[in-house]
Amino acid sequence: MFVLLRQLGGIRSGAGLTRPPGGPGALQLRHVDAGSCNACESELHAAANPFHDLSRHGMAITASPRHADVLLVTGPVTRRMAPALRRAYDAMSEPRIVAALGDCALGCGFFATSSDVVGRLEDVLPVDVRIPGCPPDPETIVRHLMPLIHPAAP
């Protein structure tokens, strides 16, 4: 399969079928619930519904970290989820982007005193994007992810 994709890429390049510079990109998101209350997941699903439509902005949720550009993590990192979270991060290709979705991923929220919590996401993985809120609404989620597709001009 990889050989065929490499050949297809060569054919596209040879035919001049490259992406136009400055055009919209695509972003594959791999969501991992590290121990949340599921409020952030509800808002993430709302962001992907037809009304808010992540795909219209060039974003999609993927099932495999190997296909992902962004690891989108909700909840504080629990002891049982820390190894799985690290495996998902290690399976991603470079460049890897980690996004902390919600106040619990950013600072543990009301789970901070639990003995099952390792800590905030930043204690386990390097965080590139911070999406605050308890839970953040779909517009906030999209607004914080959009610069990854359309970076500001220097």
Structural write-up:
It is a single chain. With 154 residues, this protein is α/β, with parallel strands linked by helices. It has one domain (36-149): 3-Layer(aba) Sandwich (Rossmann fold), CATH 3.40.50. Helix content is 32%, strand content 18%. The protein has five helices and seven strands; from the N terminus they run αβαβββαβαββα. The protein has helices at residues 2-14, 39-48, 82-91, 103-107, 138-149; strands spanning 27-33, 59-61, 70-74, 77-78, 97-101, 117-119, 129-131. The strands form two sheets. Strands 2-1-3-5-7 form a five-stranded parallel beta sheet, with helices on both faces. A two-stranded antiparallel sheet has the order 4-6. α2 (39-48) links the parallel β1 (27-33) and β2 (59-61). α2 (39-48) packs across α5. The chain is globular and about 60 Å long. Residues 18-23 have low confidence and may be disordered.
Q: Determine and state the CATH class.
A: Alpha Beta
| Head-to-tail CA distance between termini | 38 Å
CATH topology: Rossmann fold
Net shape: globular
Mean pLDDT: 85
Oligomer status: single chain
| Overall radius of gyration | 17 Å
Largest sheet: 5 strands, parallel
Strand order of the largest sheet: 2-1-3-5-7
Helix content bin: 25-40%
Total individual domains? 1
The assigned structural class equals alpha/beta
* Strand portion: 15-25%
Query: Architecture in CATH?
Result: 3-Layer(aba) Sandwich
Helix tally equals 5
Tell me how many strands there are.
7
Which stretches are poorly predicted, pLDDT < 50 over at least 5 residues? 18-23
- H-E order: HEHEEEHEHEEH
